[in-house]
C-alpha cells in the first residue's frame, strides 16, 4: 500500500470510528428515561437516583484514571470553576428527571434538544457572536416544534410545569456548555467528568436537605441497583467517553447533528417500553426541533 493510500485509509478509519462513537454517545445518552422511569416505579426519588448515579460514575472514572495513571491534581481556580459550573449541570439533570413526572419521557427529551439553539443565542447575546439568519431560522423552527408538542392530538395540553422544567434543563445545560468553553480550563475529558461528578454529588446532597421527600435513601431492591448501575455506565460514562472520541475524530458539527439520535432513542423507549403515545403531532414536533438543531449546526 502506498503512503498516500495508507493516509487515506487512516482518515477513513478515524472517520468511521468517530461516526460509530457519535452514534453510541447519542443513543446511550437517550436511554436515560429507561433507568429513571423504572426507578420511579419502585418509589425511588429523584435526588436518590442522581446521587447514586454520579457516585457510581465517580468510582468508575477513578478506576479508569488509576489504570491510565492519570493524576487527580487540579488548581484551586479549576476546582471552584468546575464546582460552580457543576451546579448548572446538576440543575439540568434534576429538572429533566422531575419533568418525567409531568409528561412523556420522549416529549421531554425532544424538548431538551433545543439546547444547541440556546447555546447559539447565549453566544450571540453575551459574547457578541453574530446573530445570523441561520440562528434566527433555528429559533423559529424550535419554537414551532415546541408549539406542536404543546397540544396533543385530542386537544390535551402538556403540563406547563413539565414544559418549564425541560426548558430550564435545556437552558442550564446550555449555560454549562458555554461556561466550560469560555472558562479555558485545561483538564482532560476524564478529569473534567470526574470533577463534574463530584460537583453534582455535592449539589444533589445539598438539595436533598431541602425537604423530607427529597432526602436520599437506599435503593430498595436488587433490580433498583441494576438500574442505578445502568444509569452510571450507559448514559454517563459510556456516553461521555464515546462523545470525547467522536469529537476528536470528526469534530463538533457532525457529532451535534448525530446527537439527534438522543431524543429519537428516548421516544422509541417511551413508545415500546412504557406505552407512550406516538402521534402525528409528536412526529411533526420532533422533526421541527431536529431541523432547528441541524440548521444551526450546519456550516455554509
Would you kindly provide a written description of the structure presented here, covering whatever features stand out?
The chain has helices at 3-29, 32-41, 46-67, 76-99, 105-112, 115-126, 133-150, 160-182, 189-208, 222-250, 252-258, 261-274, 280-297. It is mainly alpha-helical. The protein has one domain. It starts with a helix and ends with a helix.
Features:
about 300 residues; mainly alpha
Portion in helices: over 70%
Q: How many domains would you count in the coordinates?
A: 1
Total count of strands: 0
Q: Any idea what the radius of gyration is?
A: 20 Å
Structural class per helix/strand content? mainly alpha
Q: Report the major sheet.
A: none
- Alpha plus pi helix count: 13
Instruction: Enumerate the spans where pLDDT stays under 50 for 5 or more consecutive residues.
Output: 5-9
Mean pLDDT, to the nearest integer, reads 82
End-to-end Cα distance, whole Å, is 36 Å
**How would you sum up the global shape?**
globular
**Percent of sequence in beta strands:** under 5%
